[in-house]
Amino acid sequence: MTDFNTLFGGDITQFHFMRPLWLFALVPFVLFYRALVQQDDLVAQWQPVMSKNMVEHLSLNQNRALMVSPNRLFLVFSVLATLIMAGPTWQQQPSPFFEDNSELVIALDVSDSMNKTDIQPSRLERAKQKINQLVELRGDAKTGLVIYGGSAHVAMPVTKDKELTRYFLDVLDGSLLPDNESKPASVLKPTLELISQAKAPSTVLLLTDKTNDQAIEEFTKAFEQQQHQVIVWAMGENPQSGGNGTVGLTETQLASLSQLAQAGHGNMVSFTHDASDIEAVYQGIQNNLFAVSDNALPWLDAGYWLLFLLLPIQLMWFRKGWTLQW
């Protein structure tokens, strides 16, 4: 059985009914409820031959005075039962035979600015640590690695070997490149070549602290017709977090990095000192995979949980004197 975290973890904006025609059953239920109410309305029945005040003083209708009555609970029961049959849902459930064929191509900026120490020991070293944690979280998913500064180069082809990723990360730094000026647009050619053979929507993950207008423009053109996405992981102390008194990323830099991610119809994730940024990046990768790759995934029928609301209502009819006049 699906747990509550899975059940309520979907996108509520996708709410719909799996069997919407069942909602038409509400019409006869409402009409029948109105008939029950009119049947118990002594004032309406006797008003043609007796004044309203006199009927009210002479009649005794306990069910009508109660907030909880058989008639009203019948209506609640009918509405809930109809909603259950209609099958409310707002998320898809992965198939047990689903295989993750997506690729994650990590583009790591090793330019001079990544050696700043606003986050200890440096932006570059923390980026490596974050990558290792992300790769560990993803398990045996396909991962490739590109490094860039003034130029970009494939450091590791796409592989499922986590240990290989860790080995390559340990030896990467700016001394490997002839030009240490950061040029994010240079990563387009090697990253797109790596994901060109991907069998599922994939992700290009940039770990950097800066970008420019040229990169934003070129990423917009390159990803316009792509199912793949770009996630930018901003490496640097976020001005919103307070930091440790050192100068980190400015609001302008963060805005530019966000534009770069949006150019690849993705999101920017800011660096955090805990694991929340890793979770955000991982969730962004998964969301792109499931949102685009398989629209045929079955929808999770959440109506079954409403059965627990029907049980106490049904138990009320075991009370002495609780009947409905059909």
Secondary structure blueprint with pairings:
Elements: H1 4-7, E1 16-17, H2 26-40, H3 42-46, H4 52-58, H5 62-65, H6 70-86, E2 88-89, E3 103-109, H7 123-138, E4 142-148, E5 152-159, H8 162-170, H9 188-195, E6 203-208, H10 213-222, E7 229-234, H11 251-263, E8 268-270, H12 276-292, H13 307-315
Parallel strand pairs: 3-4, 3-6, 6-7, 7-8
Antiparallel strand pairs: 1-2, 4-5
Helix pairs in contact: 2-6, 6-13, 7-8, 7-12, 10-11
Brief rundown of the structure:
The chain crosses the membrane at residues 20-37, 73-90. Keywords: Membrane, Transmembrane, Transmembrane helix. The chain is α/β, with parallel strands linked by helices.
Q: What would you call the quaternary organization?
A: single chain
Would you tell me the structural class of the helices and strands?
alpha/beta
- The side-by-side strand order for the widest beta sheet comes to 5-4-3-6-7-8
C-alpha end-to-end distance? 38 Å
Shape: elongated
- Taking all Cα atoms into account, the compactness measure Rg is 30 Å
What's the tally of helices?
A: 13
What is the number of strand segments? 8
The major pleated sheet works out as:
6 strands, mixed
Order of helices and strands: HEHHHHHEEHEEHHEHEHEHH
Low-confidence stretches: 1-7
- Number of folding domains? 2
Mean pLDDT rating: 83
Helix content: 40-55%
What's the architecture of the largest domain in CATH terms?
3-Layer(aba) Sandwich
Transmembrane segments: 20-37, 73-90
Protein name: Transporter
InterPro entries: UPF0353/GerABKA_families, VWF_A, vWFA_dom_sf
Keywords: Membrane, Transmembrane, Transmembrane helix
